[in-house]
């Protein structure tokens, strides 16, 4: 794969798969715009990518819940590199976990303060929606581009407590991805959703069962995203691709 002259925006890019994708894209000659709310770590990671002397990187502090900040990130990408070829919406997470909700104090879904779930829906669904809306202006002008949404096996399975997460991910996997693919087709723009099963971005993921008996390495998910962005993946559009070790095919007894 060769991404020389290509430009990607990756969200949640100060860590995890968002960072790994930006690093991998740059290592293959592409230029990367890393977006995250963690300014100090973001600067550090951008410097590391630039020190390798292959693709270039810039960092943009951006809260995906704020449309104005999203538009600034888009504009800085175009100002720095001229185009936006690939947009990958990695930023996300289950609100009840990230906000450390006390399950003894808030034992069931109706007990959890609604602002917790607001945060989850804003980050996991509205964030990708905002970025798609913003970057499509540029992609429409250049008549090319790819948006990759990151779904989750949880979007197919559901979750009786962290309900914001499967609700948001299902929206990405089916509604947003297919709709953008329909809109973008006349401008040469594709949209694909990649939906992982358990990924070893944190140790607890090793406890989720799959038919292969393991969780994915983060690089396995990133490699699929790179394939979709490469010349080899150009005929894939409007689809949700499960990369879950067969978890969605398992025979479950609840």
TrEMBL record:
The keyword Ion transport does not apply. One of its GO terms (molecular function) is oxidoreductase activity, acting on the CH-OH group of donors, NAD or NADP as acceptor. Keywords: Oxidoreductase. PANTHER family: 3-OXOACYL-[ACYL-CARRIER-PROTEIN] REDUCTASE (PTHR42760:SF133), SHORT-CHAIN DEHYDROGENASES/REDUCTASES FAMILY MEMBER (PTHR42760). Coiled coil: none annotated. It comes from the Bacteria. SUPFAM superfamilies: NAD(P)-binding Rossmann-fold domains. Belongs to the short-chain dehydrogenases/reductases (SDR) family. This is SDR family oxidoreductase. It comes from Bianquea renquensis.
């Amino acid at each position: 794969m060769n991404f020389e002259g290509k430009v990607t925006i990756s969200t949640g890019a100060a860590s995890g798969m968002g960072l790994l994708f930006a690093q991998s894209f740059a290592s293959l000659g592409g230029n990367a715009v890393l977006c995250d709310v963690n300014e100090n770590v973001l600067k550090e990671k951008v410097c590391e990518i630039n020190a390798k002397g292959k693709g270039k990187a810039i960092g943009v502090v951006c809260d995906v819940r704020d449309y104005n900040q999203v538009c600034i990130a888009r504009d800085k990408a175009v100002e720095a590199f001229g185009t936006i070829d690939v947009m990958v919406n990695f930023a996300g997470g289950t609100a009840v976990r990230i906000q450390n909700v006390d399950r003894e104090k808030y034992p069931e879904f109706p007990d959890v303060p609604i602002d917790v779930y607001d945060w989850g829906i804003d980050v996991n669904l509205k964030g990708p929606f905002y970025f798609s809306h913003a970057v499509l202006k540029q992609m429409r002008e250049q008549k090319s581009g790819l948006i990759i949404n990151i779904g989750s096996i949880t979007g197919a399975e559901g979750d009786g407590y962290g309900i914001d997460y499967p609700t948001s991910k299902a929206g990405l996997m089916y509604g947003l991805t297919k709709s953008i693919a329909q809109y973008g087709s006349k401008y040469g723009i594709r949209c694909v959703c990649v939906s992982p099963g358990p990924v070893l971005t944190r140790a607890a993921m090793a406890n989720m069962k799959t038919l292969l008996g393991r969780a994915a390495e983060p690089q396995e998910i990133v490699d699929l995203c790179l394939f979709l962005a490469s010349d080899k993946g150009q005929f894939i559009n409007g689809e949700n691709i499960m990369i879950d070790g067969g978890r969605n095919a398992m025979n479950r007894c609840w």
